[in-house]
Amino acid sequence: FLLPLDIGRLVDKIDSLVSRVEAAPYHILIVDDDPEQVAYYAFLLQQAGMVTSVASDPMKVLSILIESKPELILMDMYMPGCSGIELTALLRQHEAFVGVPIVFLSFESNKEKQMEAICRGGDDFLTKPINPDYLIQVVSTRAERNRNIRYFMERDSLTGLLNHTNLKEHLSRELLRASRSETFLTFAMIDADHFKRVNDTYGHLTGDRVLKNLARLLLDRLRRTDIIGRYGGEEFGIILLNTDVTAAEHIMNEIRENFSRVIQQSESKQFFVTFSCGIAGFPECADASTLTLAADKALYSAKENGRNRVVV
Ligand code: GH3
Ligand code: MG
Ligand code: MG
Ligand code: MG
């Protein structure tokens, strides 16, 4: 049977959401200065299938958060240098961490103190010693909801690809990784050719459908490890990991040719759309802004030189 269009789309989204949730274990950050406590709670969560990392120094929490984006923080109350409450209040001022679930876990039984922890940004307060099943239930339920919310917030609603903000976050993070592991990374920028004309001739709804077709093709043709985002209106950005510019040029040319042969359909007519692509790579470009600028420049030159081409 046929589902109405938007319900069908929702089902698609939920399906891909579910497969993602099943795919990766929840990543929990334990912030605690006591190594024995850390070892015990890390063991409990790992037994339940979660992945844990540890910050025994509260001052390091920010850099760990930026690098690994844990899906929940299990927060100790009293640590040398900085209390869990102060740290939580600090994180809540950061737009990137305003939503990460923070669950306090402490021996503190004073209700006033517990309330303060909640008021300053904690989502929950659990007291030690805690029933292991209860801990696991609270942590996994909150981490799951966070993952679902994050999934929708990070995505562009038309294409389901990563949105601009998230793509840029990925680019910075992957550049750090590439530089640490001394691997190649390529950034490709795509811009649909004469797209204003497509809209003017066939209407915006048809234009939207073309953009969805392009997104679908990118998802089908690129590797699962490649990171694909909608950079802006009819512009897309792709981060190709472990790929140098020569290999990336090859891949993007293949996709470009494929796309140019896709028969686009308006109500009454069939037509074709092409795209231009600019490519730049790490380590030639060392940071995100240099890389983006170089890819943008290459894209501009692809447009100048007749469109429907890939320029490095
Ligand atoms: P060029 O080959 O130089 O890139 O020409 P262009 O017409 O694609 O470039 P221009 O930047 O002048 O126009 C981009 C067009 O893309 C204008 C805008 O209406 C269209 N566009 C941007 N976002 C969307 C969208 O979400 N849906 C639709 N249907 N059109 C969009
Ligand atoms: Mg402590
Ligand atoms: Mg454009
Ligand atoms: Mg364009």
TrEMBL record:
Claim: Oxidoreductase is one of the keywords in the record: no
GO terms for cellular component: plasma membrane
Top EC class, one word: transferase
Keyword Hydrolase in annotation: no
Record PTM 4-aspartylphosphate, positions in chain: D76
Domain GGDEF span(s) in chain numbering: 183-312
Protein name (Swiss-Prot/TrEMBL): diguanylate cyclase
Organism: Sediminispirochaeta smaragdinae (strain DSM 11293 / JCM 15392 / SEBR 4228)
Upper lineage: Bacteria, Pseudomonadati, Spirochaetota, Spirochaetia, Spirochaetales
